[in-house]
């Protein structure tokens, strides 16, 4: 996800909303939603609020920096709320907003498709790699 920023200097009604158009601001949103850590973070929050540490445990392999960036992007885009409780130690919960819950359903379908079709994809990759390895290389 890195330094991805969704454009904020456009007027929705005046813009083209064709995702196939290079100028469409929806492309930035699609890029954000298609990010692996975004899809997994939204999935991890589907069952209710979680603390940062709980998310790190659930999202095996995510770095602290990447989780922080992902949560900030989701909060900025209105998909996640961050609630700070004035306790000692400080408690911070992250929770999907209504908008975030609306994104959760299609992302859950993508995650389910990924797990359900992994064997076929692995088989296709192996076959492709084998065909590529069998192609004679031109001699110089």
TrEMBL record:
Residues 24-122 form the HTH hxlR-type domain. InterPro entries: HTH_HxlR (IPR002577), WH-like_DNA-bd_sf (IPR036388), WH_DNA-bd_sf (IPR036390). One of its GO terms (molecular function) is DNA binding. This is DNA-binding HxlR family transcriptional regulator. Keywords: DNA-binding, Transcription, Transcription regulation. It comes from the Bacteria. It holds the Pfam family HxlR.
């Amino acid at each position: 996800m890195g330094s991805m920023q969704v454009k904020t200097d456009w007027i929705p009604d005046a813009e083209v909303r064709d995702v196939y158009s290079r100028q469409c601001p929806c492309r930035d949103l699609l890029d954000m939603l298609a990010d692996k850590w975004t899809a997994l973070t939204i999935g991890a929050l589907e069952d209710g609020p979680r603390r940062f540490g709980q998310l790190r445990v659930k999202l095996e392999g995510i770095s602290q920096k990447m989780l922080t960036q992902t949560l900030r992007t989701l909060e900025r885009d209105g998909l996640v709320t961050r609630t700070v409780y004035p306790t000692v130690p400080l408690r911070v919960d992250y929770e999907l907003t209504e908008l975030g819950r609306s994104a959760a359903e299609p992302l859950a379908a993508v995650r389910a498709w990924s797990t359900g079709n992994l064997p076929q994809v692995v088989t296709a990759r192996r076959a492709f790699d084998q065909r590529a390895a069998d192609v004679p290389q031109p001699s110089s």
